[in-house]
Amino acid sequence: MAVGKVTFTKAERRTLAKFLWVLNWVSVVTGATLFGLGLFLRVEVQRWQEVMSEQSFLYAPHMLMSTGLAACAVNFLGGKICLEGSDAEKFLRWKMVVMPYVVCTVVLTACVLAGAVMCYIISSQLEEVLFLGLRTAMRYYKDTDTPGRCYLKRTLDLLQIQFQCCGNSGYRDWFQVQWVSNRYLDMNNSSVRE
Fold this sequence. Notes:
The structure is a single chain. This protein is an all-alpha fold. It has one domain (10-183). Helices cover 67% and strands 0% of the residues. It is rod-shaped, with a radius of gyration of 27 Å.
């Protein structure tokens, strides 16, 4: 696999090792950021699950979290290899680990790219799930006495307050559903039916 033999002086080996050590630590921070984003996405999906129509896309947060943890572990090991790689004698004990490390790095890079593509693809699915879920939640807004839906009114109110929105596309969405509970409306009254 080697193209040609490359020899480094001690100063060049030290400079290369420091550069690669910094790159590995940048990758560790990036992995921690990926893990944090996956955790944030998982918490937000859990928080707003009542207004979502389905939960079939939960693989994305778990993929981000596992890829982030793997990136932290692999690049932490790479940082250790690079730190000791500046000294030729210390590097000899890591020589057998270098090739599996390179293979793990290539696999991890493929996972990060797959995660990025998956997050891009899932954004439209998430939007559709939220659209359908919010429309369904608006229909059941009045059912505060129904088991399983008793907190839906509160969740929907918090969602609209936090995101400063009203309905899916505007306040007119509320004109298409009966959102006031039957406890407060007398449907036999003629003024209510008009």
